[in-house]
Write a structure and sequence with these properties.
Layout (H helix, E strand, L loop, with lengths): L1 H25 L3 H8 L5 H18 L5 H21 L3 H20 L7
Helix pairs in contact: 1-3, 1-5, 3-4, 4-5
Length: 116
């Protein structure tokens, strides 16, 4: 029971962060445009990435789409990690690692409302 509560809190954190960052990308916040711009993304590309991030955050909430939402969010985070590594930006990569691990831990613990 305690594990399900902890996992529920972790899911809410992941969803909140996904919605927050996705909204920042979708609305074209300057720091997001600068970050993705140095990797060759234009404003439309950043907006599409924001939409995918928001959708993945919402998919995490439902047990039937839980794994797909986590997979999409982890893939987006892994893409950002790879871009940081291409620039040899270890600090940027290290900042993204906890968010990637958060999605992996959530997948391991499974959705709290499934019967398992």
């Amino acid at each position: 029971m305690v594990v399900k509560i902890i996992n529920g809190v972790l899911i809410l954190v992941a969803v909140f962060m996904g919605l927050k960052q996705g909204w920042a990308m979708l609305t074209g916040k300057a720091e997001m445009l600068d970050l993705f711009g140095k990797w060759g993304f234009n404003k439309a590309g950043v907006m599409v990435n924001g939409i995918v991030t928001i959708i993945s955050a919402l998919l995490i909430l439902y047990p039937k789409t839980f794994v797909w939402g986590n997979f999409l969010m982890a893939a987006a985070i892994l893409m950002i990690i790879c871009f940081h590594l291409l620039e040899k930006d270890l600090k940027g990569m290290a900042i993204e690692l906890p968010f990637l691990f958060l999605n992996l831990v959530i997948i391991y613990l499974q959705h709290p409302f499934t019967g398992k």
